[in-house]
Amino acid sequence: MKNNKKQTVCVIGLGYVGLPLAIQCALKGYTVYGLDKDQEKIKKIRAGKSPLKDKFIESNLPKVSLRVDADEKVICQADIVLICVPTPVDKNFYPNLEPVKSAAEAVAKNLKKGQLVIVESTINPGVCEEVVEPIFAAKGYRIGKDYEMAHCPERINPGDPKWNVTNINRVVGSFTAKGLKKAKEFYESIIDAEIYPMKTIRAAEAVKIMENSFRDINIAFVNELAKSFDRLGIDIVDVIRGAATKPFSFMPHWPSCGVGGHCIPVDPYYLIERAKLSGFDHEFLKIARKINNSMPEYTVEILQDALNEIKKPMNGVRVGILGLSYKANVGDLRETPSLKIIDLIKKHKARVEVFDPYFPQMSTVKNLKELLRRSEAIVLATDHQEFKEILPEIFYQHKIKVIVDGKNCLNKEALKKYGIIYKGIGH
């Protein structure tokens, strides 16, 4: 991979994973094709405008030339193909591998002899062997002879000022030693971080699932403690900070109104369902998912309890929702608990107003001031910096009576001094 300018890369799926990766490849000297079905996104990228709220993309897209298209025939131009399509779950939490299958079929239909095909999409152990490779085999292509296949689970943290596609350690796995070597060399040529070779492609697939299941379980643990500590009159934030003083064997995780994003609330289901096929029941993972899925409902219960203190039913109350995004300071609605919270509040016939600076088109008001003016109660669902900076006296001046802090990020004691009823998640 020394002569990057002679190598051509095709990235399939230009979302939060694929687009930064395509840009990074171009910055490192590769000729880069991008393939996506979204024509509006293609127009923006061609114009050098980011279709996503992401600092890395916004600052680097104008510096590179990406050949983006909706025509899958561009695949045959590439030496390396990166599959970066989403892997969602349906309403019953069953994994949907159709985007991966569709991408693999497009590659198999347009395969170039000797191509390196890398799946970056998050998948459960066994997908490359049981789902992706058979698509190529059906066309008569053999790994190690006609092409190589590898898996490098994506690692990206939207909105993180430090960690991005350029510097996060990665793992790679392949079917063959040659495929592993080629994949490792490719990532070493574009990323300034460790590229760890896995013994098998199935082990590489398991890495991402393990990472996010680990987080999901620990978040579920503190979310359950938050519910318990609410009953016991203990501030869980104080307890976590105390536990975090231990210099070993403890890693702080924080409770909230729900778990969002494409990874944590999705990936455990991929392992749960795949393990079922092998006769294993992941009880622990299922319990964690159940607890974390319950947090939007618990947040609404807290809101009702707070309104009870001022002798108001939720029916007819004007509730302002601060934030739609699943994560602070990014515009990303994937699996966001905010939408679930809004639906639940509406079922109680409250009058809901919404504001998120990253989603003006989905906000019901023009700005934060208007939302506060129209609200009696507030539910903070996203800890955007703009919301964290609201002074307690501003809430008081707008006659806000109740605040439910779904991220435990506001000044609890200061708000209480103004006579505002404050409820956090175990805080």
Q: Tell me what portion of residues adopts beta-strand conformation.
A: 5-15%
The parts where pLDDT drops under 50 for at least 5 residues are: none
Name the CATH homologous superfamily of the largest domain.
NAD(P)-binding Rossmann-like Domain
User: CATH class of the largest domain, please?
Assistant: Alpha Beta
What string, H for helix and E for strand, traces the elements in order?
EHEHHEEHEHEEHEHHHHHEHEHEHHEHE
Q: Do you know the CATH topology of the largest domain?
A: Rossmann fold
Side-by-side strand order of the widest sheet: 3-2-1-4-5-6-7-8
- By DSSP (H or I, 4+ residues per run), the number of helices equals 16
- Number of strand elements: 13
Describe this structure in words.
This protein folds into 2 domains: 4-198, NAD(P)-binding Rossmann-like Domain (Rossmann fold), CATH 3.40.50; 236-427, NAD(P)-binding Rossmann-like Domain (Rossmann fold), CATH 3.40.50.720. The protein contains 16 helices and 13 strands. The chain has helices at 18-27, 39-46, 55-60, 98-109, 127-137, 177-190, 201-232, 236-243, 267-277, 283-293, 295-309, 337-347, 368-374, 385-388, 392-397, 412-417, and strands at residues 8-12, 31-35, 67-69, 80-83, 115-119, 147-151, 170-174, 195-197, 318-322, 351-355, 377-380, 402-405, 421-424. The strands form 2 sheets. An 8-stranded mixed β-sheet has the order 3-2-1-4-5-6-7-8, with helices on both faces. Strands 10-9-11-12-13 form a 5-stranded parallel β-sheet, with helices on both faces. β5, α5 (127-137) and β6 form a beta-alpha-beta unit. α4 (98-109) packs parallel to α5, α7 (201-232) crosses α9 (267-277) and α7 (201-232) crosses α10 (283-293). It is globular. The chain starts with 7 loop residues before the first strand and ends with a strand.
